[in-house]
Amino acid sequence: MSSFNKIAGYEKEKAELATLVEIFNHRKRYLAKGATLPKGIIFYGEAGTGKTLFAEVLSKECALNHVKINLSESASENNICKQIRKAFAKGSKAKVPTMIFFDELDKVLPNEDEEYYTDRSKSILTQLLTLIDGMDTVNNIVFVATCNNYHSLPQSITRPGRFDKKIGLGLPNQTSRVAILTMYIENSPAEFAMNPESIAKLCTGFSCAALKTLVNECLLRSDENNFVSEELIREKIIEIKEEDIPTDKPDESYTLDATRNIGSFVVSHTYSNSSYILNTESETVCNSFLDGIISGCRCDDDDDDDFYNDNDEFETDDKPFIETFAPGYCKNDYVCAITSLLGGYVAEELIFNKTYDNLAVNVKIIDRLLLKMSECGMLGLDLIVQDYRYTDIPYSESILEKLYQVFNDIISICYNKAKTIVEKNLSLISKLVPILIRRKTIEKSECEQIIAELGGIRT
After folding, report:
1. What's the whole-model pTM score?
2. Would you tell me which CATH number, out of the four given (3.40.50.300, 3.40.50.410, 3.20.20.80, 3.40.718.10), belongs to the domain 3-168?
3. What is the CA angle 394-398-403, rounded to 5?
């Protein structure tokens, strides 16, 4: 039986792993072509996402001799360096293909917060770089590592030539959660009152390990007939969320805001490669050009209800709510801005199977962008309608009905475009979310490098 059957979900990542297996199992064919085999492979992602399992499947599918560097047995710098040297020596002397495996590499190397702060981490890095550079892949040696925070590792070790292949494993999405739960439930004799699809919808943010824990906890508490009630399932889900075992789930609001902005950013990036800073602020699609359009329809601190006084009459403020039309923008620019804002909506919808109130501002801005297009004649001279809060001009119901239909048509077209782009980049978005949560803000130059390492934005 194939070891791949141990991995549920993660279809894209399994396909990448299968490609590596094909290369190592037919190494002579690729070497004959003049190709260079990967020298180093790293599996990275949050705790409990199956990084070690992916490494084990690679080892078994390629029948690799497994030499592990075990940090639990190496408290001191000297012991770690000694174990690293010993592992590489075993690999070079082995007469069979060998995988040198280093679990949780980021625990011992300098990172962005303590770059070369300790002599210990600097010595370990130097030792590792020397041995990796001295590897001869023709002699069937590959260095494989896992880490939780790949983007904190020093660039000296992550560059091509050392780690030639990087596979990121984000928290499982709805599809993968269903596959994981199905695997564990079907391998048990118990009957669950809820199907995997329904359970998965309640487990947003759970890691693979947390899903396994959930099923096991339910099995331990099942009744004498091996029946798991819906009440028990929901109880265990709440317990795991409260105890954080081992979801490593950050504050929900940060996750939602990061998902919203990255969804909008990915869509906006396909339209304009303008300057940007990726962040979790509201009222932005993280694109300076499109944010310039949005800024003219930005929401104030006041709610819409603040435009009325206690007697439900308009306030006599002569200042227009929407700023003067900027002649540099065309209809297509506005459409791109709306599509980008909807990218955040779609991202939440696809990842969490629902949307949250952190999208309320985006929805208001979309309404005002549409109204702005009408005011500026972009929708046709017969559909020039001013903001109802600042005009006494009566508009016929037929004109307003036609206008609303045009608005709905534009939103539908923009939504479908955004959904197409987000669906192609859902894996990328899921992997960027925890990175943005940790960093808070990411400058364009660094973000472009991260995106390239994750496979780029698919258009």
Report:
1. 0.60
2. 3.40.50.300
3. 90
